[in-house]
């Protein structure tokens, strides 16, 4: 689903419709200009391995049942600046290997149960300026190999690396998106 309008009030899948797509493995929502909330019915697609929600500037909420997507390996939520929280059920995604929350500036914190993601290998979180403190549980992610962050969280990640994760690669990306020009 790309460059679309009209999804804001639409139910994508009910449970009966989800049964018609038992092997659906990937869904992409990109530049869906009026999508404010990802429909909870998407959580019925239990075969889903890759879910991308990118450049959806109005999306504020993810389904509380996101953890039902037990096959999910990749979750990309980049450039969703209004997304204010990740549901705690995200920590039940036992197969998740890649999570990208880059440019989600309204995220205030990450779920405390992040250490329950046993296969997470890569976390992209550059330009998440709303995140002030990282949960201590991140230090327990033994499979985490690479973090992409910015200057705001660099020192916290370096401290985690020094104390508990010596093999972690921390890549710092320079800020490339800001709205400072609006102040002029």
Automatic annotation (TrEMBL):
InterPro entries: Leu-rich_rpt, LRR_dom_sf. This is Leucine rich repeat-like protein. Gene3D superfamilies: Ribonuclease Inhibitor. Transmembrane segments: none annotated. PANTHER family: PLANT BROAD-SPECTRUM MILDEW RESISTANCE PROTEIN RPW8 (PTHR36766), TIR-NBS TYPE DISEASE RESISTANCE PROTEIN-RELATED (PTHR36766:SF30).
